[in-house]
Amino acid sequence: MLDKWEVEGLQTVGILLVVCSSLKLMHFLGLIDISMTDSVEDDFELSTVCHRPESMDKLQEQTKFTKKELQVLYRGFKNECPSGVVNEENFKNIYSQFFPQGDSSMYAHFLFEAFDTNKNGSVSFEDFVFGLSIILRGTINDRLNWAFNLYDLNKDGCITKEEMLDIMKSIYDMMGKYTYPTMQDDAPREHVESFFQKMDRNKDGVVTIDEFIESCKKDENIMQSMQLFDNVI
């Protein structure tokens, strides 16, 4: 059996990873604590980019980033992704550098699917910025909706135990075996049962978006974790 702190710990980790993973990606791209001084590159240097992002003004209207922040984000994105898009294999390679002690491929797959809103097999700068805007600058409801969409693997409007088990296994493969080395092999399934006991309010075997948001808002640890990274750039 898992200790109570272990069960609650990975439940919070599931939410926290949505934010932390995005911040790790930003750190990899050189976007954290970067100087935001003026530059002649402010108009993007688009000549060598295959995918051209929408205009700066339009992206500013559609996100909660300033024009200067968008310029900094784009420089970092273009530096690591010269073509202007990231495919899933590249995305997985990036995440393997964040978690070299584990296997991050499945979690990276799920996160890639959440960023790939057009379902075209690639994440553009726009996709990246829209997701980050929600994760880092969105309301609590915005962030929880984004997390729910990540966990709702088949996008049918509810989270099943099978879907949550896949998510938990991916988290456990990526970091759980090293963060909690005493856990048994059936630990992910126990976390799923605990998750559903807390969030499946009407006990119908699935968690809806309303149940998910209501339960998360009542969890102090989850709420604190989602507010840790406000205005990081």
CATH top-level class: Mainly Alpha
Mean pLDDT: 77
Largest sheet: 2 strands, antiparallel
Number of folding domains?
1
Q: Strand-and-helix sequence, N→C? A: HHHEHHEHHEHHEHH
Strand content: 5-15%
Instruction: List the strand order in the largest sheet.
Output: 1-2
> What is the end-to-end distance?
41 Å
Specify the helix fraction band: 55-70%
Coarse shape: globular
- What is the tally of beta strands? 4
Which residues sit in consecutive blocks of at least 5 with pLDDT less than 50? 1-16, 26-49
Q: What is the CATH fold-level name?
A: Recoverin, domain 1
Question: What are the main properties of this structure?
Answer:
single chain; 233 residues; mainly alpha; Recoverin, domain 1; 11 helices; 5% strand; globular
Write the topology of this structure.
Blueprint (H helix, E strand, L loop, with lengths): L3 H25 L27 H7 L4 H14 L4 E3 H11 L6 H11 L6 E3 H13 L2 H12 L6 E3 H19 L7 H13 L6 E3 H9 L2 H8 L6
Antiparallel strand pairs: 1-2, 3-4
Helix pairs in contact: 1-9, 1-11, 4-5, 5-7, 5-8, 7-10, 8-9
GO cellular component, one term: voltage-gated potassium channel complex
Protein name: EF-hand domain-containing protein
Pfam families: EF-hand_7, EF-hand_8
